[in-house]
C-alpha cells in the first residue's frame, strides 16, 4: 500500500481498463501499416458493442457475443473498404462518416436491448497460479479477452516482423505502386486489412458492452475509438509500443480516479487532465529523439490506389 | 397519478375561478415541443423528459399535440432547431438541458407569442421565457440516510460529474444525512468530469470499491456504476439516478431518485390551455412530485426503510428541510445557525462543501 492505494488492485484494474483500446488500436495499426487511414474506429467499436451485446443476449453465450461483435465491426468496415478501395472516396471523410453512421445505426439496433443484462464472462480458471501473491491477482485472474488482447499484440508484432504476409502488408503500405508492380493485389490486401481492423475494433467494443460495463446504452464507447487512433500514432506504428501506450493511458486514468477516491491532496484538475498531458509529453519526447516517430509513418498512408498501368 | 390529476384539476379550477378575461386568453389546442440533448433511450435524463411528454399527451388527449427532437447538440444547432419549432406552430417549447440557455433566450426574443421553458437554467431575458428545475438534493438526503445506515466499512462514495451548484448541493445533502445516521461515516468524492461515459463511470465506481467504499451514489447519467457494483455480488450497493433503474433492483440498487417532469409539463400546458399561463421560475421537489424516491428494496432492513420513508414524508410535508442549521462550511466557518433553513439563493449558488467533507472542489 502506498498513498492509500493498493498497487495490486490498481494494476489489475489498469489491465482490464486498457483492453478495448488495445484491441482497437492493434487493429487500426495493421490497417495503417497497409496504407489505409480509417478514422471510423469509434463507429466500428460501437457497432461491435451493440452486435456483440445482441449476439450474447440472444444466444446466452458470451463467446458468441464476441464473435458477433467482431462480425459487426468487420461488416461496418466493409462499407469503408468498398467506398475507399473500389469507389476511391476520400479516406478521411469516409472514416468520419463511418463513425457517425455507426453511432446512429447502433442506437437503432440497440433500442430494444436497453436495460437487459448480458451473460457473464467469467475469469479464466488458472488454478494455483491465481493464488500466487501479487502476480496471481495482477496477471492470473482475468477473463480470456484480456489474454487475447496481449496475444493479438504479440501475433501482430510477429506477423509484421517475421513473415512474408507481414512483409507484403508493409510493402503495400509503404509504396502501393511498387507492390502493384511486383504483382501483389494491393486492393485485396487492403480490404482484408480493413476488415481485420474492423473485427478488432468490434471486439474492443464488445468488451465494453459485455465485460467492462455489462449493459447496452446509446453511445457506450464514448470516445474510446478516438483514443485508440491516437495510441497508434503515439506508438509510431509499432505493436508493443501500442500496448505500452494503452497501459500508460489506461493506467493514468485509473490511477487518477483511485487517487481521488483515496482522498489524495492533489487538485482534481491536475489529476483528470494527467492522462492527456502525459500522452502529449511522451509524444513530444519520442518525436524529438533519434527515432523520429513521424518518420515511421507508412509512406502511402491515406493515399488511394488506382491501378492505372 | 393522483397528484398529477390533482394538479391538472387544480389548474383547471383556477382557470374556471378567474373565468371571464382569463379564459378569453386560453387556447383550444396547444402544440407542445421538446428539445432533447440525448437519445430518448438513454435510460436516464432524457428518458425521463420523454416520459413527461408521454404523460402530457395522456392527460389532455386531443387538446394537445406534441413533437420532439432527440440528440440536439448544445450550441448553434439548438438555435436552428428552436427556430424551426417556433415556425412550425409550437405554442410552447421545452428545452431540456442546461446548455440550451443562451439559444433559448435568443430565439424567444424573436417569437414573443411562443412560450419557452428552459430546464435547469437561470436566464429569463424575455417575458416568454420560464425556467424550471427540481430539488434533487431532497432525494439525496434520503439516499444519504440509507447510505449511513447500510455501510459496513463506514466508507461511502459519490461519483460527481461537474463542479456546479446542483452537484455540490447533492454531495452536501448526501453527506450530512449519512453523517447524521452514522457519525463514523467518511465520504469519498470522485469527479468524473462527464455526464455520460459508461466506461469511465464504471472505472470511477471500481476505484471507489477498491478503496473500500461499499455504498455508491452517482450524479452521472448511465447505469454503469450500478453495473460495476453488481459485480461484487451484493457487497456494494448503489442508487438509481434520474431514472428508477429497476433492472438492478434484484442487485445493488436499493432505492433511486426519479426525475418526474410529468406534473410540471401537465401544469404548464394546462395553464396555457385555460389562459392562466404566466412566466415562472419553478423549483419543485418531493412535495411537488418532481422528485420521486424509487421503491426501497428488501435489501434495506425494515427499520431503516421506515426511517428513510419518514424522512421523505417530512420533506414532502415541509416540516423538515435537508439543509437545516447548525451547519458549518468545510473550513469551519458558520453557514446556518441552529434551526435556520438554507435560503434558495445560497443553494443555487452553492460552491462549498459542508464541514466534514474532505478534498477540494475543482474550479
Low-confidence stretches of chain B: 3-24
Could you tell me the mean pLDDT of chain B? 88
Q: How would you characterize the largest beta sheet of chain A?
A: none
Count the DSSP helices of chain B: 12
Question: How many structural domains can be distinguished in the coordinates of chain B?
Answer: 2
Enter the CATH topology name of the largest domain in chain B.
Answer: Rossmann fold
CATH level-3 fold name of chain A: ABC transporter involved in vitamin B12 uptake, BtuC
CATH class of the largest domain in chain B: Alpha Beta
Order of helices and strands of chain A: HHHHHHHHHHHH
Name the CATH superfamily assignment of the largest domain in chain B: Response regulator
Figure out the total of helices of chain A. 12
Please provide the count of β strands of chain B: 14
Name some characteristics of this structure:
heterodimer, A: 309 residues, mainly alpha, ABC transporter involved in vitamin B12 uptake, BtuC, 12 helices, B: 363 residues, alpha/beta, Rossmann fold, 2 domains, 6-stranded parallel beta sheet, 40% helix, globular
Quick rundown:
The complex is a heterodimer of chains A (309) and B (363). With 309 residues, chain A is an all-alpha fold. Chain A contains twelve helices and no strands.
Note down, in words, how this protein is organized.
The complex is a heterodimer of chains A (309) and B (363). By secondary structure, chain A is an all-alpha fold. Chain A has a single domain, classed as ABC transporter involved in vitamin B12 uptake, BtuC (Orthogonal Bundle). Chain A contains 12 helices and no strands. Chain A has helices spanning 7-33, 41-59, 62-86, 91-109, 135-139, 144-162, 164-174, 176-181, 186-212, 224-234, 239-261, 268-288. In chain A, helix 2 crosses helix 10. The longest helix of chain A is centred in the first third of the chain and has 27 residues, at 7-33. The mean pLDDT of chain A is 88. Chain B is α/β, with parallel strands linked by helices. Chain B folds into 2 domains: 2-135 and 260-284, 3-Layer(aba) Sandwich (Rossmann fold); 136-258 and 292-348, 3-Layer(aba) Sandwich (Rossmann fold). Chain B has 12 helices and 14 strands. Chain B has a 6-stranded parallel β-sheet with strand order 2-1-3-4-5-11, sandwiched between helices. A 6-stranded mixed β-sheet of chain B has the order 7-6-8-9-10-12, with helices on both faces. In chain B, strands 13-14 form a two-stranded antiparallel ribbon. The longest helix of chain B has 17 residues, at 2-18. Chain B is globular. Mean pLDDT of chain B is 88; it is low at 3-24. Classes of the chains: A mainly alpha (309), B alpha/beta (363). Chains A and B meet through helix 1, helix 11 and helix 12 of A and strand 7, helix 8 and helix 9 of B.
Amino acid at each position: 500500500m502506498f498513498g492509500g492505494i493498493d498497487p495490486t488492485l490498481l494494476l489489475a484494474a489498469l489491465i482490464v481498463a486498457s483492453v478495448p483500446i488495445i484491441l482497437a488500436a492493434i487493429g487500426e495499426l495493421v490497417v495503417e501499416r497497409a496504407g489505409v487511414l480509417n478514422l471510423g474506429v469509434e463507429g466500428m467499436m460501437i457497432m461491435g458493442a451493440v452486435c456483440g451485446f445482441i449476439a450474447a443476449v440472444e444466444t446466452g453465450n458470451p463467446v458468441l457475443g464476441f464473435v458477433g461483435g467482431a462480425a459487426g465491426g468487420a461488416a461496418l468496415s466493409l462499407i469503408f473498404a468498398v467506398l475507399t478501395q473500389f469507389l476511391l472516396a476520400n479516406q478521411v471523410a469516409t472514416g468520419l462518416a463511418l463513425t457517425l453512421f455507426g453511432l446512429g445505426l447502433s442506437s437503432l439496433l440497440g433500442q430494444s436491448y436497453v436495460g437487459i443484462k448480458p451473460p457473464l464472462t467469467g475469469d479464466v480458471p488458472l488454478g494455483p497460479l491465481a493464488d500466487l501473491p501479487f502476480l496471481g491477482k495482477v496477471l492470473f485472474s482475468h477473463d480470456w479477452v484480456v489474454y487475447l488482447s496481449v496475444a493479438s499484440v504479440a501475433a501482430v508484432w510477429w506477423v509484421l516482423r517475421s513473415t512474408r504476409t507481414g512483409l507484403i502488408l508493409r510493402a503495400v503500405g509503404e509504396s502501393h505502386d511498387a507492390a502493384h508492380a511486383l504483382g501483389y493485389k494491393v486492393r485485396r490486401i487492403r480490404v482484408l486489412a480493413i476488415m481485420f481492423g474492423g473485427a478488432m475494433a468490434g471486439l474492443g467494443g464488445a468488451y465494453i458492452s459485455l465485460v467492462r460495463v455489462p449493459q447496452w446504452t446509446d453511445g457506450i464507447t464514448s470516445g474510446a475509438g478516438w483514443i485508440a487512433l491516437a495510441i497508434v500514432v503515439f506508438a509510431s506504428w509499432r505493436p508493443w509500443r501500442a500496448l505500452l501506450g494503452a497501459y500508460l493511458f489506461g493506467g493514468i486514468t485509473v490511477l487518477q480516479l483511485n487517487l481521488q477516491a483515496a482522498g489524495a491532496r492533489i487538485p482534481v484538475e491536475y489529476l483528470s487532465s494527467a492522462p492527456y498531458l502525459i500522452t502529449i509529453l511522451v509524444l513530444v519526447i519520442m518525436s524529438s529523439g533519434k527515432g523520429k516517430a513521424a518518420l515511421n509513418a507508412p509512406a502511402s498512408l491515406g493515399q488511394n490506389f488506382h491501378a492505372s498501368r | 397519478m393522483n397528484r398529477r390529476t390533482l394538479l391538472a384539476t387544480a389548474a383547471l379550477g383556477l382557470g374556471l375561478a378567474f373565468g371571464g378575461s382569463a379564459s378569453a386568453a386560453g387556447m383550444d389546442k396547444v402544440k407542445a415541443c421538446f428539445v432533447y440533448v440525448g437519445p430518448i433511450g438513454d435510460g436516464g435524463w432524457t428518458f425521463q423528459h420523454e416520459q413527461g411528454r408521454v404523460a402530457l399527451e395522456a392527460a389532455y388527449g386531443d387538446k394537445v399535440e406534441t413533437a420532439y427532437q432527440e440528440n440536439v447538440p448544445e450550441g448553434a444547432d439548438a438555435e436552428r432547431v428552436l427556430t424551426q419549432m417556433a415556425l412550425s406552430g409550437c405554442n410552447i417549447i421545452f428545452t431540456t438541458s442546461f446548455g440550451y440557455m443562451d439559444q433559448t433566450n435568443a430565439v424567444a426574443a424573436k417569437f414573443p407569442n411562443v412560450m419557452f421553458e428552459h430546464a435547469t437554467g437561470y436566464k429569463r431575458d424575455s417575458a416568454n421565457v420560464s425556467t424550471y428545475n427540481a430539488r434533487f438534493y431532497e432525494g439525496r438526503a434520503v439516499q444519504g440516510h440509507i447510505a449511513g445506515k447500510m455501510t459496513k466499512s463506514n466508507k461511502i462514495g459519490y461519483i460527481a460529474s461537474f463542479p456546479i451548484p446542483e452537484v455540490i448541493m447533492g454531495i452536501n445533502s448526501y453527506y450530512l444525512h449519512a453523517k447524521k445516521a452514522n457519525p463514523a461515516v467518511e465520504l469519498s468524492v470522485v469527479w468524473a468530469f462527464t455526464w455520460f461515459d459508461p466506461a469511465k463511470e464504471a472505472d470511477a465506481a471500481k476505484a471507489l470499491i477498491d478503496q473500500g467504499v461499499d455504498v455508491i451514489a452517482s450524479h452521472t447519467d448511465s447505469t454503469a456504476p450500478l453495473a460495476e457494483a453488481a459485480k461484487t455480488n451484493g457487497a456494494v450497493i448503489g442508487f438509481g439516478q434520474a431514472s428508477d433503474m429497476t433492472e438492478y433492483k434484484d442487485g445493488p440498487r436499493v432505492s433511486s431518485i426519479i426525475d418526474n417532469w410529468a406534473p410540471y409539463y401537465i401544469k404548464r400546458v394546462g395553464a396555457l390551455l385555460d389562459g392562466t399561463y404566466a412566466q415562472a421560475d419553478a423549483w419543485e421537489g418531493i412535495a411537488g412530485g418532481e422528485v420521486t424516491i424509487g421503491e426501497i428494496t428488501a435489501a434495506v432492513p425494515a427499520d431503516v426503510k421506515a426511517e428513510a420513508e419518514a424522512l421523505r414524508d417530512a420533506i414532502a410535508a415541509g416540516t423538515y428541510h435537508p439543509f437545516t442549521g447548525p451547519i458549518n462550511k468545510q473550513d469551519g466557518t458558520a453557514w446556518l445557525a441552529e434551526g435556520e433553513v438554507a435560503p434558495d439563493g445560497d443553494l443555487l449558488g452553492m460552491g462549498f462543501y459542508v464541514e466534514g467533507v474532505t478534498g477540494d472542489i475543482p474550479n
